[in-house]
Design brief:
By secondary structure, the chain is α+β, with helices and mostly antiparallel strands. The chain has 2 domains: about 170 residues, no CATH class; about 130 residues, no CATH class. Strands 3, 4, 5, 6, 7, 8 and 9 form a 7-stranded mixed beta sheet that branches. It is elongated. Belongs to the ABC-4 integral membrane protein family. InterPro entries: ABC3_permease_C, MacB_PCD, Macrolide_Exporter_MacB.
């Protein structure tokens, strides 16, 4: 079929053609970016925390003085370990997906000239590394001599364990063991690397920084108290956590149990990513509504043009055009309009993505989403125009030309 006659017909309806192309362009821009945001959030929610989530829970208390921390930790650890089914209890600063997090920017040289990024820190007491179930891939696990008191929020000089993702970021193409980094006067040396270790605020910084985590062996004390990592058999864990919450009133009646923060790690994960799942659902609704409106616009315009062109259709049928020819005419016309809208929409999609990158710190839109969005809109256009086109092809020549 020749394109020139179709373009000539479209030029006679410039306003309607431009409006539907702009609607398709907007749909293309929103579709590409919304799908990317949904995929981005799903990727975040599926992060491998690196810990044995099904066997772990956290119990958190507050309302105690710093001078009471030593006695509190001793009472809590001893009392919680006595609970039937409890495998281990250790003092920690936080857990993946928990409410408490420690983040700090690090430098790769003592002079502080080479910035390494903002990392998440775990200051965890003896027994915590084994309880977490982290998988060591290089170096060694902490020994009793590695656990040191916290100077403020970290030890002044510590042997630490980093995630493999963080090691590749800080020292690309190099062995991480023995490497050093600093936070002002605080010095760290890498003694081990684990396969995965999500930071406490797992979604902070996006998928690229989700495992920028450091495990710091630390001794419980005034700056490390009140948060306890519980490990039990996955089948027993709900009951063990329930018994542990009930035991707090007996073990330490002078503290306040934070029921909201005291959960299994699996429940903390579900709660942490609840907003992401909600947002993804809303985005799906927005996409569906936008595509529906776009499809209705195409159907309305095509139906209007079919009604206007009944005489033209009848003449063409009388001159020998088949139903297939009429059908293909409207499908080709729709394809050209949708293609023009997609071309404009791709530029608009990149502009929208740049704005989202600046405001919400989203990554750059991958090019893969553009052809995928274009294909979806082409299919939508062809399906939307099919009904009006079939009605046009079904008009008998004698009826269409009766007024000639």
């Amino acid at each position: 079929m020749q394109i020139q006659p179709i373009l000539a017909a479209l030029r006679k309806h410039r306003l309607a053609t431009v409006l539907i192309m702009m609607e398709i362009a907007l749909a293309c821009a929103v579709l590409c970016n919304a799908c990317f945001m949904i995929a981005h959030r799903i990727q975040l929610s599926r992060v491998d925390s690196g810990v044995d989530e099904s066997a772990l829970a956290v119990l958190q208390v507050s309302g105690f003085e710093a001078g009471q921390s030593g006695d509190l930790n001793a009472r809590m650890v001893a009392g919680l370990r006595a609970i039937t089914g409890m495998q281990s209890v250790s003092v920690v600063s936080g857990v993946p997906f928990g409410s408490q997090s420690i983040n700090a920017g690090v430098k790769l040289d003592r002079a502080g000239k080479h910035f390494g990024g903002v990392l998440g820190f775990y200051n965890d007491g003896p027994g915590s590394f084994e309880a977490l179930g982290l998988t060591l891939v290089e170096g060694r696990a902490p020994t009793p001599d590695d656990f040191q008191p916290l100077a403020t929020f970290v030890p002044s000089d510590a042997q630490v364990i980093v995630s493999r993702t963080l090691a590749e970021h800080l020292w690309p193409g190099q062995k991480a063991l023995g490497k050093e980094f600093w936070i002002d006067k605080y010095h760290f040396r890498v003694m081990g690397v684990v396969a995965h270790m999500a930071r406490t605020g797992a979604g902070e910084g996006g998928t690229g920084t989700i495992e920028w985590s450091v495990f710091v062996p630390a001794l419980p004390g005034p700056n490390l108290a009140g948060t306890y990592l519980l490990r039990a058999d996955p089948h027993d864990l709900p009951r063990v956590l329930r018994d542990a919450k009930a035991a707090v009133a007996t073990i330490a009646p002078d503290v306040v149990l934070d029921h909201d923060a005291s959960q299994t790690i699996s429940d903390l994960r579900q709660r942490y990513f609840r907003a992401d799942r909600t947002m993804a659902g809303m985005m799906v609704g927005v996409i569906a509504a936008l595509l529906l409106v776009t499809a209705l616009g195409i159907i309305g315009l095509a139906s209007f043009w079919v009604q206007q062109r009944r005489r033209q259709i009848g003449v063409r049928r009388a001159l020998g055009a088949t139903r297939s020819d009429i059908l293909h005419y409207f499908q080709t016309e729709n394809f050209l309009i949708v293609t023009g809208g997609i071309a404009l929409g791709m530029a608009l999609a990149f502009g929208l993505n740049l704005a989202l990158m600046r405001i919400y710190e989203l990554p750059r839109l991958p090019l893969l989403y553009l052809p995928a969005g274009a294909l979806a809109l082409w299919l939508l256009g062809q399906l939307a125009v099919l009904g009006p086109a079939l009605r046009a092809a079904a008009v008998p020549p004698v009826v269409a030309t009766r007024s000639v």
